[in-house]
Amino acid sequence: MSVSFSDCFSDLLCCEDSGTIFSDGDLPECSSDLESPINIEESIAGFIEDERNYVPGIDYIERFHSQSLDSSAREESIAWILKVQSYYGFQPLTAYLSVNYFDRFLYSRRLPHTNGWPLQLLSVTCLSLAAKMEEPLVPSLLDLQVGGAKYIFEPRTIRRMEFLVLGVLDWRLRSITPFTFMGFFAYKLDPTGTYTGFLISRATGIILSTIQEASFLEYWPSCIAAAAILSAANDIPNFSFVNAGHAELWCDGLSREKIIGCYRLIQADHNGRRKPPKVLPQLRVMTQARIGSSDSSSSSSTSSYKRRKLNSTSWVDDDKGSSD
């Protein structure tokens, strides 16, 4: 069963006015109403100036270097998000937003454990929120938990976690992402529009193929978009002359050094470090995780994973301040 954006938020928001989600502090729409190239460039420059508000702090990546956060656990969580995105045919932006919420939450709040079921609950929650933001049809919270999920969470548990994530993110879900800049940068590289579709498609694939790598957390969305477009241009002989120096001139606020660093990291990643995630068959939920139940496990006929009932998610309730 699929549910609409409004249906999902009616459950999530209770009596709150959904219009408050998109208050004065939210992002303006990129629309055809922009009357001139000057206005468009000013809008893009504004996004570049504001993007710092939609990424984790600069010391976030250091936590992975110091191993206070587990980079392999993060990779596993994002790999699951990408599997579900591929399985349901979600937009690339949905997957990217999920990871953006995931990283912003982890930067601001510590989970009880650095891996295991808390990270999976966070992954499911972030994907659910992103899907409600971007997808016209959203699977139920149970159906969303496919792709080899080790734990199955009750919808009410996920909804509680949604409130916690929304609070930590200050309800700022319409994040600035590389896709905010992709079309503009592609146009700057190819004003005729001859290769624009290819550039955007190729750059999108590059971004999704590198999103698991924690090293990319050093670079902000505009830089990632510029480096991805440059990498995509490598496949077009007409653009063999293009380099980071050209990209720096696409808009005010871009850093040549950062673009070069991100571009080189993309090339290193492209040269064989990572394979695209496999899409696993859908798993039927046989047992739901139940708050406060005793330890037990069962398995479905379609999966070798055990469905583990969780003893406690009290840390979610403690932050929420109430329970169902």
Automatic annotation (TrEMBL):
CDD domains: CYCLIN_AtCycD-like_rpt1, CYCLIN_AtCycD-like_rpt2. Residues 79-167 form the Cyclin-like domain. Residues 288-324 are annotated as: Disordered. GO terms for biological process: cell division. It comes from the Eukaryota. The keyword Cell division applies. Keywords: Cell cycle, Cell division, Cyclin. Residues 293-304 have a biased composition (Low complexity). It holds the Pfam family Cyclin_N. Residues 176-305 form the Cyclin C-terminal domain. SUPFAM superfamilies: Cyclin-like (SSF47954). InterPro entries: Cyclin, Cyclin-like_dom, Cyclin-like_sf, Cyclin_C-dom, Cyclin_N, Cyclins_cyclin-box. PANTHER family: CYCLINS. Belongs to the cyclin family. Cyclin D subfamily. This is Cyclin D1. It comes from Ilex paraguariensis (yerba mate). The lineage of its organism: Eukaryota, Viridiplantae, Streptophyta, Embryophyta, Tracheophyta.
